[in-house]
Amino acid sequence: LTRIKIFFYGLTLNFVLLALVGVFAPEVENKEAQTAAPAVQNEVQPKVAEKEVQPVKAEANLGMTPEQFRQKFNAQLKTLKIDTVRPLAEFDIETGDKRDTFQVMFSKDVGMTGIVNKDGFLREIVFIVGGTDDHENATLDMIILTGISSRIFTPEINASQDLLDLMTQALKNMDEANNMHKKTIGNVEYYALANEATGLWVGISPVEE
């Protein structure tokens, strides 16, 4: 990949909270009670049924909490005997208005951002390569990190080659305006995008229903 010229100036992620709340009000029931004396009739106030609130639909997620991902990631490092990537320490999750986030720097050139739903489940992770003169090692780290993650989120399918293809396409088309490349595997969507301003991003997110 000789065309890699990645300069990372900023890291921003904006996501919109998707939730569905339905409120259904049943019809009001009218009751009219009569006394034993047929000539006398007591009117009963109409009974209004309580509003039935439908529970908020759970947000799409990657099927595990950040801590579960961390443990699985470290287990994969140990199983594969990879010593070039350090194990993940406990995440420092920052609270946001709509979603929470955490960040990890694997090196000065390669980092990871995690997005967490308010129910505590992992929504998305994004690996990012910033400006570096060590293109070869940064790209190798990216391949290792995304490959390990694919073994966690789609263990039944080897998605390593698919991720490599996505990264290759993104790096080859850095001059194009719309340079996002996606691949859906099971319930997971993998994507890669790259340009000289933001660098190379490789993300993993759930498929929206």
Strand residue percentage:
25-35%
**Count of helices?**
3
Secondary-structure-derived class: alpha+beta
Strand arrangement within the widest β-sheet reads: 5-6-7-10-9-8
Helix and strand succession? EEEEHEEEHHEEE
Helix fraction, binned, reads 10-25%
What does the largest sheet look like? 6 strands, antiparallel
Oligomer: single chain
Uncertain stretches of 5 or more adjacent residues: 1-37
Q: How many strands in all?
A: 10
Descriptive report:
There is one protein chain. The chain is 22% helix and 25% strand. The chain contains 3 helices and 10 strands; from the N terminus they run ββββαβββααβββ. β9 (188-195) and β10 (199-206) form a beta hairpin. α1 packs across α2. The longest helix is centred in the C-terminal third of the chain and has 19 residues, at 135-153. It starts with 22 loop residues before the first strand and ends with a strand.
What key phrases describe this protein's structure?
globular, 10 strands, alpha+beta
